[in-house]
Amino acid sequence: MITTSVRFVRTGTLMRAFSLLLAAGLSLSGCAERTAPVTAAARTEVLPLIPAPAQVERGEGRLQITAKTVVSVPPGDVPARDAANHLVELLRDARGLDLSVREEPVSSPASIRLQLDSKSPVAQAEGYALDVDAQGLRIRARDAAGLFYGAISAWQLASADAKHGAFEIPAVTIRDWPRFGWRGQLLDVARHFHDVDTVKHVIDAMAQHKLNVLHLHLTDDQGWRIEIKRYPKLTEIGAWRTPPGAGRHGTPQRYGGFYTQEQIRDLVAYAAERHITILPEIDMPGHAQAAVAAYPEEVGVTGERPAVAVDWGVNPYLFDTDERSMKFIEGVLDEVLELFPSPYIHIGGDEAVKDQWETSPAVRAQMRQLGVKDAHAMQGWFNAQLAKYLTSKGRRLIGWDEILEGGLPESASVMSWRGVEGAVAAAKLGHDVVLAPAGWMYLDNLQTDRSDEPNGRLAMLPLSRVYELDPVPAGLTADQARHVLGAQGALWSEYIPSSRHVDHALFPRLAAVAEVAWSPMAARSWDGFLARLPAQLQRYRALGIDYSDGAFAADIKIDGSSNKVSTNTVLNGGPTKIALGNQTGIGQIRYTIDGSEPTLKSSRYGAPFAVTLPVTVKAAVFTEDGQPLAAARSRHLDRDALLSVDTQGLRNCHDGGPLGLRVPLLPDMPGTDTPVYNVDLFYACWTYPQARLDGITGIRVDAVRLARNYGLAHDQSKVHQYPPSSPQGELEVLSGCDGEILAKVALPAGATLGEQFTLEAPLPPREGVHDLCLRFTAPIEGPLYAIGAVHLIEATAQSPPKR
Ligand code: ACM
After folding, report:
1. How far apart are CA 463 and CA 550, in angstroms?
2. What domains are defined for the chain?
3. Ligand 1 centroid vs 349 CA: distance in angstroms?
4. Signal sequence span per UniProt (predicted)?
5. Residue-wise pLDDT tens digits, 329-382
6. Is the peptide bond preceding residue 51 cis, with omega within 30 degrees of 0?
């Protein structure tokens, strides 16, 4: 007796056909299978799948799945059983539905059925066919990965909303396969170490996005994170550093960590079960300071032992190129190859400033003997040795695009990060390439310009920008384009110290990375993606993924105040209007002005509205059907607030500097509850734009003394020293950066890092609106000073500044 616990529910006589391609504003021409009239209602209905499948066609009716639904696989079909188990697990976690998997020779009517099938209609590797109809839900694929991805899609169809228990899936025919075989995400575990649980959390999420390469950046100047048995000091010494401000704000005396080989094996197996390959990166010849700190004689160029670095950026330590060093590297690679089955091994190759090689008599002599013309070519020789070694072991070398500069070994592949030019050049030379261009794929860049963003790089990388990338750069012929293996997001971790930061930076932008790497351009559309995102956010909540809602969060502004002009109008007694909006422009914004928490019943924002100061505006964002999109944000507006700007409201005095960062109190603070400071490493100078100075008698600055822990290599000379009047330096306030000095305050003595203090000074009477320039003259060899907020003080204020 077969239980038919899955019911196919007819929704009337109307044939409802729908294609995600249509929802994306695209035609059905890619769909070879049955077609049917598409109603207006169907056009607006969204299938909650991310990444968008290659082909989708909606059928007639809906399928009901309950706690009694049979999930079956053919006897002995191990890949089907594995995928089915994974589906059942996800349904339990996200839906609270406890199904179990059975082996049955033929599928029960109206069941969920997974089956490896050499005749599956989708022939492409990793592809799958998913059919929901009167027969039930069927997933067929020609390989195990395809079955797994079919299961992920089935789970996504089942988790469109936050409800628990039984659910309905619309009738649908999906034919899906990835555009690229390489769908990656880099996690830097060297700058900040992320433990096994965090890495598994990332692996789980990657699998749910149909990503299949986890690039682990295992070694760098600031830490060596993989146990190498024959060289124990790599982790005994190289995995640990003494952080700036040790002991303050929770910063440990010793920061670090590493994975034992047993943990690596566990991670590799865990990833493999989810059809993810872990690509190990051992960064060489640069970013080698931790290795040199551990084995200065064996691999260092100078023989001197540095400390494991605490400076982010580019440090001078390179691996040596002599026989002893090259043998050492082979020894490391031998253990890496034993641990990681990945066909590719990443050898780094980025940002290797050659000063140590160029000044070493031994390296210069070796270059002469080899007939190598310069240090770039020497890196080419170094890479060639690694490529030869890896090839002899049946593996392939991949490295950052700098490896193009010294001549590329024939077998090498290139990961393009400095734009797409490296990819174009390499593909034209016949090398395989992976696109990880920083301008689209570096997820340590902040995703909004909101003040509540945590630490990160300041060039903004919104969700929409990530989504934009086409991994096949324009200008490649079809033959050259075949060298594009795929695309990859990157999460460098200088400013990502905790697992919460990892989640905040990765999600939801990983969803965009996934669609970039999986979906054909014809199935991609920004509007379609946005329509499918709320379901994805709901899954994140169900799975405990601490995503950023910044792209949807309400920005609360004085109307017209992208600059300070309208703020000044209000200060002059003009009317006050509040404008609400968000980065993506989706959702309904609900707000209150009485201090209460906004709900779906609160006023819906339509146009700028008038308020009387003081006022607290709170605004939350929901989808049209009432699901949460962004938590409530609050802004208190009174006269003091209008006379203040926070670190985000300040402007860099020099636009376009590449080194804009948002930094915490201390670089290795474990928590997330740190104030943050926008800095430009080259200029300790900020502008308070269009300050209205009528009636202003003083200025108060919330300032901080930060670690200056940045390796700038040859750019060090670009760091500007403003002339100090005393050894400790001052804060200067000027009317315009080239104008007169209005105030000068001595910086407090001492060198305690992470110390916050307030500087206050009278300002001479001025009228009208001026850009105020604030700069620190502290010696650039010492700590870095920065500003949390600036407050202008009015004559009428209760406590006028001390004169
Ligand atoms: C890199 O961002 N240095 C590859």
Report:
1. 10
2. 22-176 (3.30.379.10), 182-306+317-351+385-517 (3.20.20.80), 555-636 (2.60.40), 644-794 (2.60.120.260)
3. 9
4. 1-23
5. 999 999 999 999 999 999 999 999 999 999 999 999 999 999 999 999 999 999
6. yes
